[in-house]
Amino acid sequence: QVRLVESGGGLVQPGGSLKLSCVAFGRTFSNSVIGWFRLKPGKEREFVAVVSRSSGMTYVADSMKGRFFVSRDNAKMTVYLQMNNLKSEDTAVYFCAGDSPRYCSGRGCNEFAAADFSSWGQGTQVTVSS
Q1: DSSP letters of the chain?
Q2: Handedness of CA 35, 123, 73, 87 (dihedral sign)
Q3: Worst-scoring range by mean pLDDT, 4-13, 51-60, 65-74, 76-85?
Q4: Which of 38, 64, 87, 101 has the fewest CB atoms within 10 Å, i.e. is most exposed?
Q5: pLDDT-based confidence at residue 19 (cuts at 50, 70, 90)
């Protein structure tokens, strides 16, 4: 299995930007889509975005589309989540996830469920507040 380590979280004002990184350790990294999820207190883990194995295709949840962008650099074994125009409701712990048997089809990616992934990072806190 792949080991994932997130970084880049922090405190940002509304309207600001953050770029999260997810560094992978393990040979299975390039064989799997990588997903981003977030967890708010008292809520279920929420899908944020997914990037295909080759990074040619991505999918971002509707509520974040146009503000969040996901990408990956397989040579660096790193996946990124660029978050722009952040809102207070984006405050959460953000996780990246890998080792999924699902993949994006030739026509594109769709939303993934947390249960689709078997490897998770420890999470990084993002707080949006003035």
Answers
A1: --EEEEE--EEE-TT--EEEEEEEESTTGGGS-EEEEEE-TTS--EEEEEE-TTSS-EEE-GGGBTTEEEEEETTTTEEEEEE-S--GGG-EEEEEEE--S---BTTB-----GGG-SEE---EEEEE--
A2: positive
A3: 51-60
A4: 101
A5: very high
